[in-house]
C-alpha cells in the first residue's frame, strides 16, 4: 500500500509544517505531505512548502460568506487532492461540526499547552500567570469542540522563574516539532484506531449538542 497523502493546514510561520516535511523526507517515513493549505496568502509556511516542492493552495476566509461554505470548499480541495489525513498546524480557523464529522479520526491538531488545561489562545501567558511549574504541548484528534479531542501525545517542559510567554513558547515549540511527526507516523501506520473510534463517538455527541 502506498503512503497516505497528508494535507497540512496552516495560517502562519509553519515551523510545525517544517518538522513534518523534514520527517517525511526520510524514505522510511510512512506518510507523504501532498498538499499545504493556508487561509492566509502571506503565511511563511507557504514558502516552506514551495521550497520542498509541495503543492500549496490558499483558501481565504474573505472569499466566503459563511463558515459552512468555507469548509465545503476546503473539503472539496482535500478530496480533489486525494488527501487521506489532515494535520492542523497553527490553522487559525474554527471548523464546523459538519466538516469535522467528515474527517474525524483522520485529522489531528497540535496545541501549545498540556490539554485539557489552557484550550484556546495565549496558552503560555496563561500558564505563567497561573503559576504553573510545567507547560507543554499536546497532539490530539480533532472533534467539533476546540482542543477537546482524544489526546495522542504530550510533551512537558518546566516553566522557569524568569520566563516570558515568548521564551516559554520557544521551549515548548522545540517539543512540538518532535511529537507531531511521531504522532502522524503512528496515525499513518494505523496505530491509533482505538482513539480514532473514541473521537468518532465524541464527535457524534458534540455535533448533536451543537445543533
Ligand atoms: C504552534 O504553537 C501550535 O501549537 C499552535 O500554533 C503554533 C503554530 O506555529 N497550534 P507554527 O506555525 O507551526 O510555527
Summarize the structure.
The protein has 211 residues and is α/β, with parallel strands linked by helices. It has seven helices and seven strands; from the N terminus they run βαβαβαβαβαββαα. The protein has helices spanning 15-24, 44-51, 67-80, 97-103, 123-129, 165-188, 193-210; strands at residues 5-10, 32-38, 56-58, 85-88, 107-111, 134-141, 151-158.
Helices and strands, with pairings:
Layout: E1 5-10, H1 15-24, E2 32-38, H2 44-51, E3 56-58, H3 67-80, E4 85-88, H4 97-103, E5 107-111, H5 123-129, E6 134-141, E7 151-158, H6 165-188, H7 193-210
Parallel strand pairs: 1-2, 1-4, 2-3, 4-5
Antiparallel strand pairs: 5-6, 6-7
Helix pairs in contact: 1-6, 4-7, 5-6
The structure holds 5-O-phosphono-beta-D-ribofuranosylamine (GRF).
5-O-phosphono-beta-D-ribofuranosylamine (GRF) binds at residues 10, 12-17, 45, 89-90, 110-112, 137, 173, 176.
Could you walk me through the main structural features you see in this protein, from its secondary elements to its overall organization?
The structure is a single chain. By secondary structure, this protein is an alpha/beta fold. The protein is 42% helix and 19% strand. It is built from 7 helices and 7 strands, in the order βαβαβαβαβαββαα. The protein has helices at residues 15-24, 44-51, 67-80, 97-103, 123-129, 165-188, 193-210, and strands at residues 5-10, 32-38, 56-58, 85-88, 107-111, 134-141, 151-158. It has a 7-stranded mixed β-sheet with strand order 3-2-1-4-5-6-7. Strand 4, helix 4 (97-103) and strand 5 (107-111) form a beta-alpha-beta unit. The chain is globular, with a radius of gyration of 17 Å. The mean pLDDT is 97. Bound molecules: 5-O-phosphono-beta-D-ribofuranosylamine.
